Amino acid sequence: MEADAVLNCEHTRLMLATKRDEEGAFDALVRSVRNRAFHVAFGLVGSRDDAMDMAQEALMKTYRARATFREGEPFLPWFHRILRNTCFSFLRKSRRLKKVSLSASEDDESDWEIADDGPGPETAIESNDTKQLFWSALQTLSARDREILVLRHYQDLPYKTIADVMACPVGTVMSRLFHARRRLRDKLSPHLETAGSPS
Q1: pLDDT per residue over 12-22, tens digit each?
Q2: Are residues 20 and 87 in the same domain?
Q3: In angstroms, what CA-CA distances link 65 with 49, 134, 171?
Q4: How far from 77 is each of 8, 88, 150, 174, CA to CA, in Å?
Q5: pTM passes above 0.85
Q6: Domain-ending residue, one of 54, 73, 95
Q7: DSSP-derived secondary structure letter, 141
Q8: What phi and psi values does residue 2 have, to the nearest 5 degrees?
Q9: Which end of the chain has fewer surrounding CB within 10 Å, N or C?
């Protein structure tokens, strides 16, 4: 994960340069994080067009908030909070976010259920598209499950970085990831068996 650490340092350096209004710094930062931002947003909002809008909006908010970025603070967790809040605000305004309680065995916290009227996993089976099957199943999970799966498996972030991003201990990240993977596997299993694919 040494490459990740170098990249994180570069993001932070570019953000500090942006804060000092150095020419070209923010453009370089945008080029470096826009794909990451899009994939995280897509994992949360479930629509490519909305994810593009959310990523753009979060980047604009980042620029406007540049003066509040603190020296010594890593950029990615700070940026992810802006992106996450932007996505959740959009989902609340579009009435697609509903608070639900989790069992006491999983941190005794609340989570957010995201209403999704897109095609379900069975539609992906009909089109025989495994990637579409995964994304359709992901959209049926809660906001917290989606977020942690995207951060770990699509952004390939180490546990420590995810813990910083989500402001929780590494042990909590591991526990949440275990439960999220299990729920995703439960959603996928019947469809993969139907399709004759290995689970």
Answers
A1: 999 999 999 99
A2: yes
A3: 24, 35, 31
A4: 10, 16, 14, 17
A5: no
A6: 95
A7: S
A8: -60, -40
A9: C
